[in-house]
Amino acid sequence: MTGIIHSDAEHAVALAALDGLLSVEPQPGSPEADDLQLLALVIEAYEKERWPIGLPDAVDAIRFRMDQQGLTQRDLEPYIGSRASVSAVLSGKRPLRLRMIRALHEGLGIPLEVLVREPRRTQGPS
Prior knowledge:
Layout: H1 8-24, H2 31-50, H3 58-69, H4 77-80, H5 83-90, H6 98-108, H7 112-115
Helix pairs in contact: 1-2
């Protein structure tokens, strides 16, 4: 199976074929290794089209980066401002301003396209 995947059934067949190739542990540069690489690319293309993953919410991305780097809310003050501002941003009560977006991007490496997205609406009182 090395053709284009058009359905979930074909996807299942491709995954089984990939599993079979992985169990053989082909040598790099062998025809089997080439088949494995091609099959993985075809599966990846189908999965990206079939089940796209959207960008995260800016606050979710900030919290993720905090978790990755072991940061506290206090550590965000140089990027966002006062302790109250950090709390308001992380709770969704205050939007990010341009200065904050630039600082978070440059200082923490959070992608700009994530930081400038409109926040998701949360349920509950406004």
